[in-house]
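Table S2 (text version). Query chain:
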Amino acid sequence: MCRKIRATMIVLTFAVLCCCQKVYTRTWGVLMTLAAEGGEEPEYTEIKGYRLLYDEPDGENGFYKSMPRFELSHQDEGLITKYRIICPDGEVAEGQLDTENENLFWEGTAGDGTYHLSVWLEKIQIPEKPDTEPEDSDNEEPEEELPEFSEEELKTWEKNFVWQVDSTPPKIQFLSPAGEGWFRQAVLVEVKAEDEGSGIAGLHGGYGEKYFENGGGQLRFKVESASTAGKPIRIWVRAKDQAGNITEEERAIYIDMTAPVLDISGADNYLISGRNLELTFTVQEENRCGSMEVVMEQENPEGVKNEERLSQWQAANGGYVTGARLEQDGIYRFKFMASDEAGNKTELYRQVILDKTNPII
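Corresponding structure-token output:
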């Protein structure tokens, strides 16, 4: 709501306002016609009027990012300074200053929107004496004579000011991606910016050395780079309104378009060996592994099957390894599976036969 502070006959120091200020003041010489006859020379009465001190806009494009404020000082005993303030919420504050050097300090408190200030001068109205008062010419005090100002000259002091305030930064909404996390392909970024005050002036965004912009409230671009060593790709978006308020948001995403690389060493596929075997299973992943598993199925010469899972993994050479030692005769079937955090999967199969028993002749 609007707020005013009025102090009579107190000269406030203009330095209380910020250093970027504007002063509106004028002085006019107005011709006054004397009532006496005889062709006397006319005299000029100086209109001191009022002095208005207010802040310059601290935003862009003529907008204020902080609440407007002004100081109005009445300068003339022969006139009245009147003012009217209309706030964004519709509340009206009005009044007058009628004593020389009387000051009004005002600061907006109704929030963002448009403030209107009107200032003008009016003549002092001297009330007429009642007809019933007895005439006593001996004791009657002489009537105070006030200068006559023309309506045309007074209108030159009628001034209207409009202050637009937008102190609220824009709002940014990510339409896609829905959140942070891992992705298996290029990511489409869609962003929407809204500003209920001065309006969106520009929307910018990017990642790495890529830069995109749009003068409207929507922005779309595609992130095609891939993460390395599990590090995120940081997407940034910046929205700016007409007043110069800025909002920035950032998201971290991970893009991994490559599946893990699997390797089995120690025996070729479908190998038949007459001696013990040592098999090594290796997973290489440029980012982060999600899961790793080796399922070993052993079928002995009698046809009995047994299944075992290898789960003892160790980090080595930027990857992970595990192993299996084959000592019993039989058929060994291996299913080697791994996936990364993005969901890329790789599978590898191997079968070997171990037969260390000599044939019976």
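Notes on Table S2: The chain has one helix and 28 strands. The mean pLDDT is 84.
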